[in-house]
Amino acid sequence: MRRSTVLGRLPIRPSDFVVEIGAGPAPFMYTKLILDKYPLDNIERYGDILNVAPIIKADAVKLPLADKACDVLFVSHVLEHLDEPGRFIAEAKRCARWIYLEFPTARRELMYAWSFHRWLIEIESGTLVFYRNDIPQLFGDFFHAHYDFLLDRWSEERFEELNSYLYAATDDLACTISPTSAMEHVLERGARGDRKVNFPSEYGRAGTTGVAYSPGARLKLLAWALTPGTLIRARNRLRRKRNRSRRRRLGQALVARLLCQRCRTPALRLERGRAGEEIACTRCHQRYTATEGIFDFDL
Ligand SMILES: [Zn+2]
Hints:
It is a single chain. This protein has 2 domains: about 5-190 and about 210-245, Rossmann fold; about 250-295, no CATH class. The protein is about 30% helix and about 25% strand. It contains 10 helices and 14 strands. The chain is globular, with a radius of gyration of 21 Å. The strands form 3 sheets. The chain has an 8-stranded mixed sheet. Strands 6-7-9 form a 3-stranded mixed sheet, with helices on one face. The protein has a 3-stranded antiparallel sheet with strand order 10-11-12, with no helix packed on it. It is α/β, with parallel strands linked by helices. The chain has helices spanning about 5-10, 85-95, 105-110, 140-145, 150-155, 160, 180-190, 215-225, 230-245, 250-255, and strands at about 20, 30-35, 55, 70-75, 95-105, 120-125, 125-130, 165-170, 175, 270-275, 275-280, 285-290, 290, 295. Zinc ion binds near residues 262, 265, 283, 284 and 286. Zinc ion binds near residues 262, 265, 281, 284 and 286.
């Protein structure tokens, strides 16, 4: 199943107040607010955040959201980046009723071995188990260096083999940090010697491959293959420029759902300050200003 199919089947309504944590170039379609620790810095993601909703700079372990302020927290490929995932889970329970979590499977982590993934995460009997990530980059450099649209399509068709996902009530979330490291965990599980299995290839026997690529996917591949690289790069530059100039603005209704990071009270108000729009706390008088249209709540 492809990611778009998985997301399309989630019981989330367009009217739900969905807060996305750590969005990127492919945000969720119903996201109303984006929270990100590094909104202008793409070191730990593959491109700019797409401006589908207002963006606030905040830390995942100190969310600027009032208690149960959102219907759904959408958290895709963020958990494995966090130093203290347990503190984030506690915040998620406080702020949201439901949560969507997505992170790489062990298989994908072994393929790429990203330098900034602190954890390998498994879902074991409904509990999120965090294994401290010490996986070496055995062939990660190969996959990173040779990533192209064919591999992108290959990965998209194998979303469920390469990514774990979970949609749950936050009350049901449980997590634990394993004393076993990620590498020990992977070695324990993998077959060795004559216990290894050789799989017969579907390629050739089934005509093309084991995966039934849709006619749409095949056409898209063909279009990409025939389009000159210079045209694709020019389109990407234009999209990036347009996206950066189109920040979504925060409205009063959205500000009312936020929590002051200093006094932890939902008493915030949008005001016109000396340097443009500001958010002020009516209780402790803390003021929040914006840079490039992004308010800083990472106090
Ligand atoms: Zn305050």
